[in-house]
Every structure is written in C-alpha cells, then in structure tokens.
Amino acid sequence: MVALSTPIRPRPLHPLHAICLGAAFPLFAGALASDFAYRATYEVQWANFSSWLIAGGLLVSAGAVLWAFINLFRRRPGGTDRRGLYFALLLVMWVLGFLNALVHAKDAWATMPEGLYLSAVTTALALAAAWIGHAAGRME
Question: Which of the 8 DSSP states describes residue 82?
Fold first, then answer.
C-alpha cells in the first residue's frame, strides 16, 4: 500500500498585508536614491523628496509591523518558524526608518552622511523583510 501525501504549501499573504509589505521597499529605495541625488547635486529638493518618501514608507510599513505582531500570537497548524524573524526585521526596519525621518527633519546639509547610511540600511531591511514575508506566505 502506497500512501499519497500532498505537500503543505504556505498560503499567500492577506492582500492588505501584502500591499503594506510590498509598498515599503520602493518607498525606502526611493529615499535612498534621492539621498544619492542630494549627495551628488546638493539640491535641497532631493532632501525634501527623501523626507516625504521616508514618511510614506513608515506609514505603510506600520501596517505590516502591526500585522506581523498580531501573527506572532496567532497559533495555527502548519505555521512557519519565521514569524519571529519576520517581525524582528520589520520592527528594526521601522525603528531605523523613524530615526532616519528624524535625521532628515534637520537642515538638508546636516542630513549627510547619516541620512544616506540610515536610508541604505532601512532599504536593505525592507528588502529582507519583504523577501521573507512573501516567500514564507502567511505567517500564521
């Protein structure tokens, strides 16, 4: 007798969770790009673009952080072990993004080079969190 089994596949993320998670990376990456543009041109408007993009990234990623926090306490069969890592990445990304927003609130000249470094780290963390979140499916 042969036992047939179907592989357990993770369910996709809830659409609102996927939107919050997927929108954070391009916003933080745009802030990084505009920080590079400010560093090259010293045009103040690039620093203003960075500030707005960081604020948008913080707004949408707050939803993903909240969703990941709630999923830490939801126990469902077949859940993955990545929930803690996923939440930690999102939380560190959000805290560093908030610190980056505070740095970018200063005068444009005073944002360099800390703002550029924080934007790079925040973008890398947003990419890692999106990769883990979308690859693992629903973190339940």
Answer: T
